[in-house]
Write a structure and sequence with these properties.
35% of the residues lie in helices and 26% in strands. It is of the alpha/beta class and 234 residues long. The strands form 3 sheets. Strands 5-4-1-6-10-7-11 form a 7-stranded mixed beta sheet, sandwiched between helices. It has a two-stranded antiparallel sheet with strand order 2-3. A two-stranded antiparallel sheet has the order 8-9. A hairpin with a 2-residue loop joins β2 and β3. The structure holds cytidine-5'-triphosphate (CTP) and ligand LQXTBERG. Belongs to the IspD/TarI cytidylyltransferase family. IspD subfamily.
Length: 234
């Protein structure tokens, strides 16, 4: 099986509070985005990578791609003001309408090939699939600091990326969202908005999105654990 992947990396990392785009923060000597790109570089199912970046950072990304010998990046595309606009800019340049495209946050460096493959297999059957994990905490709806109700947890899943789609479907969903001025927090919600089903594929709790400073502590621990696992296998 084959797929292409769009990687939005044009955010500003405001919640990370480091004053730089979090894609450039080093985790064990490599920037976050290099860890993410290497997963797809090493996956034989991945045909090409479209990376979406801030216009002012194009040269920085180009340098990282060259220095780290990343060969699958076929295009570097200019990002938009919101994640959704950045993703749409990346999707627009793809043309294999019946092919599978993944959308994956540059800020999720711990995605594993095994989960990518399960996701691609599912999307090939059902047209739209997302990785997710069951929510672990009790969830409450709150207004003005007061609990309104406790939400039934058994049906709640925390949605991750990658999210996988047949290209023509996700392009259509983004076009419709743009027409209707609909802004979703992920791409699957745009597919839901045009009335299509999205299937859940269970992923890993380690596939975190680096969002706030404490995520970096967890990230170093995940990398350390991965190194130990690799050493045991060799
Ligand atoms: N206009 C934007 C906003 C976000 N992203 C990307 O979308 C992914 C998930 O977004 P998020 O975690 O919100 O990243 P930031 O926007 O960088 O973070 P913040 O909201 O804290 O500024 C990241 O890889 C980010 O670079 C993007 O390509 N274009
Ligand atoms: C797409 C996403 O990573 C799924 O969990 C998430 O919704 C991105 O959200 P953010 O608000 O851009 O951090």
């Amino acid at each position: 099986m084959k797929y292409d992947v769009v990687i939005p990396a044009a955010g500003q990392g405001k919640r990370m509070k480091k004053g730089v785009n979090k894609q450039f923060i080093n985790l064990q000597d490599h920037p976050v985005i290099v860890h993410t790109l290497q997963v797809f570089e090493q996956d034989p199912w991945c045909r090409k990578v479209i990376i979406v970046v801030n216009e002012k950072e194009v040269d920085l990304f180009k340098e990282l791609i060259e220095v780290n010998n990343i060969r699958k990046v076929s295009e570097i595309v200019k990002g938009g003001s919101e994640r959704q606009h950045s993703v749409y800019n990346g999707l627009k340049i793809l043309t294999d309408e019946d092919g599978i495209v993944l959308v994956h946050d540059g800020a999720r460096p711990f995605i594993e090939q095994e989960h990518v493959h399960r996701l691609v297999e599912e999307a090939s059957e059902s047209k739209a699939a997302v990785l997710a994990v069951p929510v672990k905490d009790t969830m409450k709806r709150v207004r003005n600091g007061k609990v309104i109700d406790t939400v039934e947890r058994s049906s709640l899943w925390a949605i991750q990326t990658p999210q996988a789609f047949v290209l023509s479907l996700i392009q259509y969903a983004h076009e419709k969202a743009q027409e209707k001025n609909y802004l979703g927090t992920d791409d699957a919600s745009l597919v839901e908005a045009v009335g299509e089903d999205v299937t859940i594929v269970e992923g890993s709790y380690n596939n975190i999105k680096l969002t706030t400073p404490e995520d970096l502590i967890y990230a170093e621990a995940i990398l350390q654990a991965q190194k130990i696992k690799e050493r045991k296998l060799t």
